[in-house]
Amino acid sequence: MTSPDTDYSYAVELARQLIRCPSVTPAEGGALDLLERELTKMGFACTRLVFGEGEAAIDNLFARLGTATPHIAFAGHTDVVPAGDLDAWQFDPFGGDIEDGRLYGRGAADMKGGIAAFFGALKAFLADNTPTGSISLIITGDEEADAINGTVKMVDWMKANGHQPDFCIVGEPTNPSALGDMIKHGRRGSLTGRLSVTGSQGHVAYPHLAKSPVPALFEMLAMVNATELDDGTEEFVPSTAQIVDLVIENPASNVIPEQATGQFNIRFNTIHSVDSLKTMLTAHFDQIAARQDVRYDISFASNASPFVTPSGALTKMMAEVIRTHTGRTPDLSTTGGTSDARFICQLCDVAEFGLVGKTMHKIDEHVEIDDIDRLAAIYCDMLVAARV
Ligand SMILES: [Zn+2]
Q1: What is the pLDDT of residues 97-141, one digit of tens each?
Q2: Neighbours of ion ligand 1 (CB under 5 A)
Q3: Beta strand residue intervals within the chain, DSSP E
Q4: Is 79 a catalytic site residue?
Q5: What are the extents of the domains in the chain?
Q6: Which fold has domain 189-304?
Q7: What's the gap in Å between 172 CA and the centre of ligand 1?
């Protein structure tokens, strides 16, 4: 067990305290209160931004030190996914235990450890420097769930209130296996489609008197069944489509069903847009529906468009600092799921670099405590390099 005598750094202690705040999305859990107290001590002007009504209301925190340029922002989230099976955990997911140099708990990697590293960086930077520019923190409580009352609304609020950063670093756990592996400088978009095909019901022994919707549905879905929609770009892997659900509610083995439904999700790069994909898919479905003499309904939902911050001053500066501290040259990548960077890109250039993500969302989520301190030193040097 943890020795009570051990002295940990400010950043590691803050990460432990954050893990002890049960901020399972969308609960605030005391995490933003804790950060606001720390930021106030460091001289930041803090604004709590509550978006949404009643049950859906989400607490967020914006803080800024100074008003001048350059204006550098750090962004992250304090909400965490649920712990899952508590009996399967070796440690209390909300205990902040440290053993063998590892900090355990829900959010250790995604991303309370990263936020604690922001704070470690601020402490170190402000101890040695008097900023001539300004530093902002964009901390949301709504990243892991719907992400509708968090960063997306904070970005609108920042635009309306004259908080325009020059660039923003998001502290998501971007490294697959070791600190220094990977910077994410873009993300793919996501489009979900729900396709229902309607024929006419009948006896399987008399198929000429019925019209099965199933062959048409299968033909329509072939285009999105584990297919690559393009060859990728310099910055992105090929767009891919996956069928995620199929429903034909028909318990009788002698009945041709009336309706069949399939759901698919496409992760797409900048070759496509939500609109271009909808147009392409609808043309494909129309043609099959006409030939197979069935009707269909399609509903689309998208919560992310693709974006990329081109390799340039920001990514070069980040890579240089990361290389100095870790000896690794980070890959520039646009892989993985969506992140709040998709909203921040509307405000300024944005890139993501954080802890090692191997255990995020898993049982016994953990990070190396040395990595928290090294990440804090990296963020601190990024502030120095940005001449903030
Ligand atoms: Zn995250």
Answers
A1: 999 999 999 999 999 999 999 999 999 999 999 999 999 999 999
A2: 110-111, 172
A3: 45-51, 58-65, 71-77, 98-99, 102-104, 134-140, 167-170, 182-184, 186-187, 189-198, 202-203, 227-228, 240-247, 255-256, 259-268, 295-304, 307-308, 331-333, 349-352, 366-368
A4: yes
A5: 10-187+306-385, 189-304
A6: Alpha-Beta Plaits (3.30.70)
A7: 5
